[in-house]
Specification:
The complex is a heterodimer of chains A (104) and B (234). With 104 residues, chain A is mainly α. Chain A folds into 2 domains: 1-30; 39-103, no CATH class. Chain A has helices spanning 2-18, 31-37, 40-54, 68-83, 86-103. Chain A is elongated and about 60 Å long. In chain A, 40% of the residues are buried. With 234 residues, chain B is mainly α. Chain B folds into 2 domains: 4-163, no CATH class; 181-234. Chain B has helices at residues 4-35, 40-49, 53-64, 69-80, 83-94, 99-107, 111-123, 131-156, 168-177, 184-199, 208-233. In chain B, helix 1 runs parallel beside helix 8 (131-156), helix 2 runs antiparallel to helix 8 and helix 3 (53-64) packs antiparallel against helix 4 (69-80). Classes of the chains: A mainly alpha (104), B mainly alpha (234). At the A-B interface, helix 1, helix 2, helix 3, helix 4 and helix 5 of A face helix 1, helix 2, helix 3, helix 4 and helix 5 of B.
Chain lengths: 104, 234
């Protein structure tokens, strides 16, 4: 079953990449669709980020004040805005997380 | 005129700085795939069958959590819809190529390869071999992604949970999203998606992900359209 799903989603993903190369159908996308697709990365990635930061993996409840992942994420956001470097952002965020886990 | 070889290596070189972000992401995906309960073979082949980082993470996590296949598939498809944009953007540069080339270049069309290729096509003189640039950047990314996934799978079992390495995934996404939030519509898309992801947590089958993604896209789009109409009136 997992193989079927991997292949089906793989084919769909390939189709999203090939569709406008195919020469079939219209030569350009309608502008409303281009506008909407522009928001896919922001919406999808933020939807993954927020629960991963705010929900405690051990208790599966929302944690705010005593949540080292929240402070680590805030440091990561600052580093990302400042440096725009993926590696530095990961290093700063994980470093902060480890520091807080060690202190608390 | 630039030779095919020159274009190819220019693509490879242009892609190199982006590999700095891809390498840790691939490693972490390999680790996470195993931690989610996928087999080593499934984790490794996901990297060549889907070949899209965020969608692979979601596939592994949802499948590992026992979510029904239709929801896993739907989530992966929504995440990967953005490639239609890249495909549309590059279409006029590749339309005259033979089918084999178009199939290969489409397969290699990722966020990172697109980013450097569109830059090349827009800022440098066009030439008959310019598609080799995408081939070079795409192949470097592909090879790096496969190798780091395999490495992640191999080291995954030796890394203790207490390292919280899976937290590198949201950190990677923070590094991508934070710098691209430019205007009110972007912020609205992000805030709506984040809020819906939290509100939707009680929903079965991790449906919050699709809810938050679609809601965020819609919210950003609505704010943007609203801005456009106001500009039109003024």
């Amino acid at each position: 079953m997992i193989w079927l799903l991997m292949i089906a989603t793989g084919l769909f993903t390939f189709a999203t990449r090939f569709i406008m190369f195919s020469g079939l159908g219209r030569a350009s996308l309608p502008s409303w669709l281009v506008d909407a697709l522009n928001y896919v990365p922001i919406a999808v990635l933020t939807a993954i980020i927020v629960p991963a930061v705010l929900i405690d993996p051990a208790s599966t409840t929302i944690a705010i004040v005593d949540n080292p992942r929240l402070y680590a994420a805030l440091v990561a956001i600052a580093v990302a805005l400042w440096t725009r470097q993926v590696v530095l952002t990961i290093v700063a965020g994980l470093g902060m997380l480890w520091l807080l886990q060690w202190l608390l | 005129m630039r030779s095919a070889k020159t274009e190819f290596w220019a693509g490879v070189v242009a892609e190199m700085p982006l590999m700095l972000g891809v390498i840790p992401f691939g490693l972490v995906f390999g680790v996470l795939g195993i931690a989610s309960g996928l087999s080593p073979l499934e984790t490794i082949l996901l990297s060549s069958i889907l070949f899209g980082g965020a969608s692979q993470v979601v596939f592994a996590q949802l499948w590992g959590a026992g979510v029904p296949w239709m929801v896993v598939g739907g989530s992966v498809c929504v995440i990967n819809l953005r490639h239609v944009l890249y495909s549309a953007s590059l279409a006029r540069y590749v339309r005259q190529l033979p089918l084999g080339w178009r199939l290969l270049l489409a397969y290699l069309l990722t966020d990172e390869a697109y980013a450097v290729t569109i830059q090349r096509l827009r800022t440098e003189p066009s030439g008959p071999n310019q598609h080799y640039f995408l081939l070079g950047s795409g192949l470097l990314l592909w090879a790096g992604w496969q190798i780091t996934t395999i490495a992640g799978v191999l080291i995954g079992e030796t890394i203790p949970d207490s390292w919280s390495l899976s937290f590198a995934i949201p950190l990677t996404f923070i590094a991508i999203v934070a710098p691209i939030l430019k205007d009110r519509a972007d912020l609205t898309a992000a805030l709506t998606a984040g809020l819906l992801a939290m509100i939707g947590q009680p929903l079965p089958w991790k449906l919050w992900l699709i809810l938050a993604a679609v809601g965020g896209i819609l919210a950003g789009w609505l704010v943007q359209q609203h801005g456009k109409t106001k500009q039109g009136v003024a």
